[in-house]
Amino acid sequence: MLVLKEEIVFIVFICGGVYHFLYNERVEGLTEELRAQLMGVKLTKKEKLISEFILDNFAESCFITSTEIAKRLHVSDSSVIRFTRTLGYSGFMDFQKSIRKTYTERINSVSDNITVPSERLKLSISKLGQSDIVESYFANVLQNMKYCVNHNDTLAFERAAGLIAGSKRKFIVTSRANSCIGDMMLLLLKHLLTDVYETSHPALNVIDHLCDITENDCIVAVSFPRYSEMDLLAAQMAYDAGAKIILITDKASSPLAQYATQLLTVSVDSNTFFNSYVGVLFTMELLCSFISRKMGYSTEAKLQLIDKYISKVGLF
C-alpha cells in the first residue's frame, strides 16, 4: 500500500483547510442572502421544505433539475416551480439561473490553488524533493480518479450520455492541454454516434464551428484551469442557441459551469507544474462507456465496416 509522506499530507491539509474555510464562508454568505429574500414571504408547508433543502444544499441546487429536487423531497415538480414563482421568478429555470450566476461570481472571488505553471514549478520542486516521485504521483492520480467516482453518481453519467446520444450534432470543445482528451473522445464517439465534430482546426476556430448550432445539438466541453476564454465564449454561444451543454470540469464554480446542462467534475490536481489529465481521461472514457451501453448493438455494423478497411493497411 502506498502512503504519502507526512510532509506532503501536511501541505495539502493546510492549503485545503484554508481554501475550504474561505469556500464555506462564501456559501454561507449566499444562503444568508436567500434567507433574507425569504423573510416576509408566506410559504406553504411544502414550500418551506423546498426552501430548507435549497439552503442546506445551495451549491448543488444551482445545477440539479427541479425534477430531481422534487424526487428527493417526495413532492411534485409543480410544487418546486410554484416555490420559485412565490419568490418572484418566472419559473425554476429563471430562479436557478439567478442563484447559479451569483454562486459562480462569489465562489470565483476566492483565490484558487496556484495555476501559473512557473509558480507551481517552484512549489513542486520542494515537494517532490521530499518524496518518492513514483509513489507520490501514483497516489495523486489515484486520488483524482476517486474524486470523479465520489462526486458524480451514475445518474449524472446517464443523463450526460442521454443528452449526447439524443442530440443531432455533437461538437467537442477543447483547447491546448485539453485537446488530447478531445482527440480521444472524437475517436470513440465517431465509432458510437453520427455527426460528431471536433472544433479545434487550424483554419477554423470554435466560433466558426458553432455558428449554426441549434437547440437540437449539443457541445461536450472540457475546461480546466487556467480556463480558456474561447471555451467560455463557445459555451455561451451554445447556451444562447438553446443547445445542450455537457461539461467536464474541476468544480461547480468553474466559469463554464453557469451554462452547463449536465456537469461532471474531476480533479486535475498535480504534484508538479502541469495539470494531471489522467482522471479526466478516466471520466471521458467512463462517459463513452455509458453511451456505448445506451447504443447497444446498433453500432456493430459501423465497427465492422471500420475494421474491414483499416485491416487492409494495418492501421489499428
Automatic annotation (TrEMBL):
GO molecular function: carbohydrate derivative binding; DNA binding; DNA-binding transcription factor activity
Domain HTH rpiR-type, residue spans: 30-106
InterPro entries given in the database record: Homeodomain-like_sf (IPR009057), HTH_RpiR (IPR000281), RpiR-like (IPR047640), RpiR-like_SIS (IPR035472), SIS_dom (IPR001347), SIS_dom_sf (IPR046348), WH-like_DNA-bd_sf (IPR036388)
Gene Ontology biological process terms, A to Z: carbohydrate derivative metabolic process
Keywords: DNA-binding, Transcription, Transcription regulation
A Pfam entry, by short name: HTH_6
PROSITE patterns in the cross-refs: HTH_RPIR
Stored PANTHER family: GLUCOKINASE (PTHR30514), RPIR-FAMILY TRANSCRIPTIONAL REGULATOR (PTHR30514:SF18)
Protein's recorded name: HTH-type transcriptional regulator RpiR
Organism: Anaerotignum neopropionicum
